[in-house]
Write a structure and sequence with these properties.
About 60% of the residues lie in helices and about 0% in strands. It comes from Tricholomella constricta.
């Protein structure tokens, strides 16, 4: 007896007021159980199935005599079919093995059935309920069973109150009798369906009963959705863990577990309302995945070895003498730029870095030459005489002169001024270069570092010192040599290999995850809102990985032709694959969009139920009160409409719970084929990435190659056949529950006959059906693009059977690649407080294509967007004089641009921290305390655009303090009580810095700065302590604690100076950044929508003009020739990626903003998180609309434009105006204008106002028959030819239209547009709460009065007609 379950069952029984009797189950120690197992083995081994008579007395307890050899020993498979014995294989799943536990469970259930059958006290019409001891029930199970029990026909045998692993809602539900009372209102309806293949009596007897039902021997019915489910709260006695993966849920489950109840009451449950990608993961959650990744571990080991090598050079006397007092700079560069990327990319970065150092060196030497030229020679002679007189006997003259130099004895005002001018111009130029071309940031940063040392120490010398720059250049060159050696010798990787690995890990794997989440979703019940929300959130995380992976892959593809590589695939092959990534990414987003739509529908249903329940004030009347509008007023048009749609769907069993099993069964083969295709692509990528050098020298094995090619071809053919079968046959399974509403011959809607009937028969509501069409379209489109992707793999596998040597071919385009300003190239300066792109504006977005060679095969010329911006203060110049001043004005305006302002900031902060080095009163202090590092840190801490400055600044300070503490500990551990042991210093520093290096490599971007600053500070403290004790220096700052706080203070001073400069003209906090970035993304989303609507209208105009262009996919390079619409997908994908990048980068700001001091009040985090989530959903809907548009032919485009209200010009004006107003209000914290129109109501308004315009002439209702016409008109609001109250574009829906292959794409476009409108409305509500609303009392009253009169005029009393009936 399971005492743990008995306690919960008693709680359930008492709470619901039920009575039942407990029957003790048999366990594995029961002798009869072992005897049955022995008998089954004996019978199977010695008899054929036809010889077995299970109805004979003592069948199992006294088996017939054996007719063959003794029983065998392998495990016994469970029987799954009648008269069939499955043979055991090692690959047989555990749940198909007959065990003692399963036999005990089977015997317990059979014993209960036998007891019931032999009970003489039971009458023929009595009913017995059999339950397992780990179930949960609906709270209102009494009402639900009372409701459906009257549906049962005479002669029924079994009713399943719960079930699993079967589509019990496939057939039509039983019709309720005339006196049946609905108890659910708009809740998921409780229906009774003829059983199909019910399982999960939660015993091994379920397959036998299921077979008896399918063979017609038992007349069984199933309650849909389940009202009794298995809880799976504890360990299963039959299966590992808690049992099978199937997890059913209830609408209003009984909380039989007190722990669950307490968890639901916990305040922490509030965080569960946020999507998973908005919830802060564990701070160290990245460690385990990093340690499990072989590639990450290899890279980490390589970086640690490089760091250790630089430290060895620092502690070795010979190399220390050669590198000088900045010998530790090599270790700092090893931390900031570890050898973690492919060799070709690293060399490109290092060449850029060294070029910057040479430029800084050259400009600094030019400043030195100019400074020496203007030096006052008389003043110099006087200074030399003063120095001569200050010499002290017994101290080397060289040391004394060196001290005089750094004390500023030889400073000259004129020379210092020249240095200052050169320094200002040089830092301004390098800063501007960094702003204009982010890819040259390394050139700018390290050029500035070299220029700093030349211009800081050069004015102190009385003579030319043109080799001053070597203090940093020599250590850097040492590190470059070490890094290249480690990249070549330690786990070498080519960019080709890295790209393919990223393709698998960052694109294919998350795509596979989304497909698995989709399968998990359609095989569950949508009314299980918690489970569906969890799946949707997991989909968000996987979709983010797909988007990020696409960004990274497109960013890397342009450099794959800059290296010599060995492998099967060359740079052109990788580019060919990359062209398909954007298209496939769009289709993957479509799969997730379906989950979002259903989850959103669940949320709306929950909101309706909550509002109704709070109004009724009685939890027991929860279902019945769902049809009651909330207290305080009537529902708006859209809410009333949704209420009626859900009631109609629930009435006929056309809700999500009923349709989802049809989706699961109809798409099972196609989903399986997609899974297999993705698996074969992963296997192919792994094969291409394996044995590169060995395969290059080894003779090609043609047999293995042919076998690999055959597998790919078979998977491709399977996928194509499954897709074709889905389109022609299986997709139509979704339509079957609706066929009864149409004439089977004509396909037209059935008409009613009776004189008291309405004009048309009551029609089904099809909102859930159309959302299911989104699934059909999304899966179809995904499978189609996946087949093209797999076709590329097949073709490349045939063309590239073995590895070969690939020479670099992209150096001709190197300049263009370096000058690129694509926004997906991020984090170019790891220490910068901000970004290289303005997160609060899209005005300077780059339109360049990621696919450099794609245009070679494309044929569609897409016109560029034209800007209508003009100068309102002046007409265009007409004279040369005017054009000159226009050019001069552009030059001056440059200094107001973000790039010009950054150049000025860079020069100003550099000059400010440089001045103390050339003042005689502070020169010695500046040199002795290494003030140069404050200057360097200030320059590297600047960014072109402000990020979350306050949070970023404190992260850097925290990293510095942590590094200071660790660095002092490392010094004392490695040095002991002396001046440092070289072996101890290298080992201790490497060991303690290694975890921070791992964070630098694997931690999320928002943590990277913390680990970089910690590691840099550790090297600072240890390096300077070693230099001061082992290298002759003029000024020793001490070691350990004495030196550490001084060096940490320099870093803090530098970042503080940069932070202060970045704060002007005003500081940007995380909170301001969040608001302004969301304002910018709002405007850009509206812009993308406008572009797509324009494209749709252009397509329709071409159709009316008789142009039906289409590019067919033929020939060997069919994947390189995309249709005109697919070209738009690939072009618009760049903007989608940019918006997605902005939103992803905002994750950290949403979290850090909560911890900023709120001097003016608490920050409304939940509002901004909701706005962020809404914009993410809006981006998904836009992506879905764009993809659906590519599938529509010109005829259906015309229907979408002219026969639906969504593209009504007046409605489009409302949409674009609302989006623009919302963006403006967020950007400037302005209140919204009064009574901003609710777009959902405008859709209904335009739909009801313009039927003659949309669908041609239509007889207007006669005044005398207004009642009948009004009823008919209101009936149309939720009929099958409408979605959310808006027409699909057909005068009358027919069966042929439902079966048309274009309808899923058409319905998807409409559902996407409908979703966009709803989401804009949601954004309006959030922005109104955040920014407020201007109110004019008279206008508000007039507006309400006008809306009421409008209702009566065009809606015939819409709300009253659509209200509860």
């Amino acid at each position: 007896m399971r005492t743990d379950r008995r306690k919960d069952m008693e709680h359930l029984r008492k709470t619901l007021g039920l009575r039942w009797t407990y029957m003790e189950a048999a366990d594995t120690s029961n002798p009869i159980v072992n005897k049955i197992l022995h008998s089954v083995r004996l019978i199977r081994d010695t008899h054929s199935p036809k010889d077995i008579n299970p109805w004979s007395p003592g069948f199992l307890t006294s088996p017939p005599p054996a007719r063959g050899p003794p029983p065998s020993s392998p495990p016994i498979p469970c029987a799954t079919r009648n008269n069939t014995i499955t043979l055991y294989t090692a690959s047989l799943p555990e749940f198909k093995i007959l065990t003692l536990a399963r036999i005990a469970c089977w015997y317990s259930h059979v014993s209960v059935i036998q007891k019931i059958a032999n009970d003489r006290t039971l009458r023929p019409d009595d009913t017995v309920l059999v339950l397992e001891d780990d179930v949960d029930m609906e709270r209102d199970i009494h009402q639900r069973l009372r409701h459906v029990w009257s549906f049962l026909p005479a002669g029924w045998d079994i009713v399943y109150l719960g079930h699993c692993w079967s589509n019990e809602g496939a057939s039509a539900p039983l019709t309720p009798p005339e006196n049946a009372t609905a108890i659910n209102g708009t809740l998921p309806g409780t229906h009774l369906h003829p059983s199909q293949r019910p399982l999960c009596t939660h015993a091994s007897i379920d397959r036998a009963i299921s077979w008896l039902i399918q063979s017609g021997r038992l007349r069984s019915f199933s309650v849909v959705p389940s009202v009794v489910v298995q809880r799976k709260a504890g360990k299963s006695d039959v299966m590992p863990g808690t049992g099978s993966q199937w997890k059913s849920s209830l609408v209003d489950e009984m909380a039989v577990s007190e722990e669950k109840t307490q968890a639901q009451r916990s305040p922490m449950a509030e965080s569960m309302h946020l999507p998973s990608h908005l919830k802060a993961p564990g701070f160290f959650s990245w460690i385990l995945p990093a340690l499990k990744s072989r590639r990450t571990l290899k890279t980490w080991i390589r970086c640690c070895i490089a760091l250790a090598a630089t430290l060895v050079l620092m502690v070795a006397n010979k190399t220390l003498t050669n590198m000088g007092q900045a010998a530790f700079f090599a270790a700092i560069v090893a931390v900031m730029l570890p050898p973690s990327i492919a060799l070709s990319l690293f060399i490109l970065g290092i060449v850029t870095l060294l070029l910057g150092m040479l430029i800084g060196w050259a400009w600094g030497n030019a400043a030195m030459a100019a400074g020496l030229a203007v030096r006052n020679q008389a003043r110099l002679a006087q200074q030399q005489q003063q120095a001569q007189a200050s010499l002290v006997e017994g101290i080397p003259r060289a040391i004394q002169y060196q001290k005089f130099i750094f004390q500023g004895m030889f400073l000259d005002p004129g020379t210092s001024a020249v240095y200052g001018a050169f320094f200002f111009v040089g830092t301004f130029a390098l800063g501007t270069l960094r702003a204009f071309i982010p890819k040259l940031a390394l050139l700018s940063v390290f050029g500035s570092i070299v220029l700093d040392i030349v211009c800081s120490y050069g004015p102190l010398f009385p003579t030319a010192q043109y080799t001053l720059a070597k203090i940093f250049i020599i250590p850097t060159c040492y590190y470059v040599a070490i890094a290249i050696a480690t990249l070549v010798l330690i786990f070498p990787e080519s960019l080709n290999r890295v790209w393919l690995t990223s393709l698998q890990n960052e694109f294919i794997d998350p795509t596979e995850q989304i497909l698995s989440y989709l399968s998990r979703a359609v095989e569950s019940v949508p009314s299980d809102t918690k489970n569906w929300a969890e799946i949707t959130d997991l989909g968000y995380a996987a979709r983010q990985k797909v988007v990020t992976g696409t960004q990274d892959l497109l960013g890397q593809i342009s450099t794959t032709d800059l290296e010599i590589s060995v492998g099967r695939l060359g740079p052109a092959d990788l580019r060919r694959i990359s062209r398909e990534l954007k298209s496939l990414m769009f289709r993957v987003a479509g799969l997730h969009a379906f989950l979002i739509f259903v989850n959103k529908s669940n949320a709306e249903q929950t909101a309706l139920t909550t509002a109704a329940t709070s109004n009724s004030g009685n939890s027991t009347a929860k279902a019945a009160s769902a049809s009651v509008p909330p207290s305080g007023g009537a529902w708006d048009r859209y809410t009333v409409l949704q209420h009626q749609i859900r009631a109609r769907e629930s009435k006929y069993g056309h809700d999500f719970d009923s349709l989802m099993p049809l989706l699961a069964s109809s798409s099972a083969d196609l989903r399986s084929a997609c899974d297999a295709a993705l698996l074969s692509i992963k296997d192919w990528i792994r094969d291409c990435n394996s044995w590169r050098w060995a395969g290059f020298f080894k003779k090609h094995n043609k047999i293995e190659g042919d076998k690999r090619q055959q597998v790919l071809v078979e998977r491709l053919e399977t996928l194509q056949m499954a897709l074709e079968r889905y389109r022609e046959v299986e997709r139509l399974g979704l339509i079957k529950p609706f066929e009864g509403f149409f004439d089977p011959v004509t396909g037209l809607k059935l008409k009613s006959e009776g004189p008291n009937e309405k004009h048309t028969t009551e029609m089904f509501a099809a909102r859930s059906l159309y959302i299911c069409f989104v699934y059909s379209y999304a899966l179809d489109a995904f499978a189609e693009r996946l087949s093209k992707f797999l076709a590329i793999a097949v073709d490349l596998d045939a063309r590239r059977p073995k590895p070969r040597l690939w020479a670099p071919s992209g150096f001709g385009k190197l300049g263009r690649k370096l000058m690129s300003r694509r926004e997906v190239d991020r984090h170019v300066v790891p220490l910068a407080i901000g970004t290289s792109n303005d997160p609060t504006s899209f005005e300077n977005r780059s339109e360049e294509s990621d696919d450099e060679d794609e245009e070679e095969a494309e044929v569609l010329e897409i016109p560029k967007e034209k800007s209508a911006r003009k100068n309102p203060d002046a007409l265009p110049p007409t004279t040369a004089f005017g054009r000159f001043f226009l050019l001069l004005g552009n030059v001056f305006r440059f200094f107001k641009s973000p790039e010009g302002i950054f150049g000025l900031r860079h020069a100003i902060v550099s000059l400010a921290l440089w001045i103390p080095s050339v003042c005689s009163s502070s020169a010695w202090f500046y040199y002795g305390n290494r003030g140069l590092w404050a200057l360097i840190m200030a320059q590297t801490g600047l960014a072109v655009y402000a990020g979350d400055q306050i949070a970023g600044f404190f992260v850097r300070i925290a990293g510095t303090i942590l590094g200071l503490l660790v660095g002092m500990a490392v010094w004392y551990i490695g040095a002991g009580s002396g001046n440092g042991n070289p072996y101890g210093i290298v080992v201790a520093t490497t060991a303690f810095t290694a975890p921070f290096l791992l964070g630098r490599l694997a931690a999320p971007p928002q943590q990277m700065m913390l680990w970089v600053m910690t590691a840099v500070t550790v090297v600072f403290v240890v390096g300077y302590s070693w230099i001061d004790t082992h290298f002759p220096v003029l000024v020793s700052s001490g070691v350990g604690v004495t030196l550490g706080w001084k060096r940490a203070l320099l870093v803090i001073i530098g970042f503080t100076a940069g932070f202060i400069v970045m704060m002007f003209p005003r500081p940007t906090s995380s909170r301001t950044l969040v608001r302004q970035t969301l304002a910018a993304t709002t405007g850009e989303l509206g812009h993308i929508l406008a572009v797509e609507v324009e494209a749709l209208l252009a397509e329709e105009a071409r159709a009316r003009a008789g142009h039906y262009e289409k590019v067919s996919f033929v020939g060997e390079k069919s994947d390189q020739k995309a249709s005109p619409k697919e070209q738009r997908v690939r072009r618009i994908a760049h903007r989608v990626l940019v918006v997605a990048t902005r939103l992803q980068d905002l994750d950290q700001s949403l979290l850090t903003a909560r911890f900023e001091p709120g001097l003016q009040g608490l920050w409304p985090h939940s509002k901004y998180a909701a706005l962020y989530s809404t914009q993410t959903k809006l981006l998904s809907s836009l992506t879905l609309f764009t993809g659906a548009f590519t599938q529509l032919n010109t005829k259906w485009c015309s229907v979408l434009v002219h026969q639906t209200p969504f593209l009504n010009p007046n409605l489009l004006s409302d949409i674009f105006s609302n989006i623009s107003i919302l963006s403006y209000a967020l950007a400037g914290a302005h209140p919204l204008p009064p009574s901003l129109p609710r777009l959902r109501d405008r859709v209904v308004y335009h739909e009801r106002l313009a039927p003659p315009t949309l669908r041609g002439p239509k007889k207007l209702p006669d005044a005398k028959s207004s009642d009948t016409d009004s009823d008919t008109e209101s009936e149309l609001e939720y009929m099958a030819d409408k979605v959310d109250g808006s027409s699909l574009g057909f005068e009358e829906i027919s069966l042929d239209i439902l079966k048309d292959g274009q309808l899923p794409a058409h319905a998807t476009a409409l559902v996407a547009l409908s979703s966009i409108i709803s989401l804009v409305d949601e954004m309006s509500v959030i922005v109104r709460d955040l920014c407020g609303e201007m109110t004019f009392q008279g206008f508000a009253e007039f507006h309400r009065d006008f809306l009421g009169r409008e209702e009566k005029a065009i809606g015939a009393g819409f709300s009253s007609e659509m209200g509860p009936r």
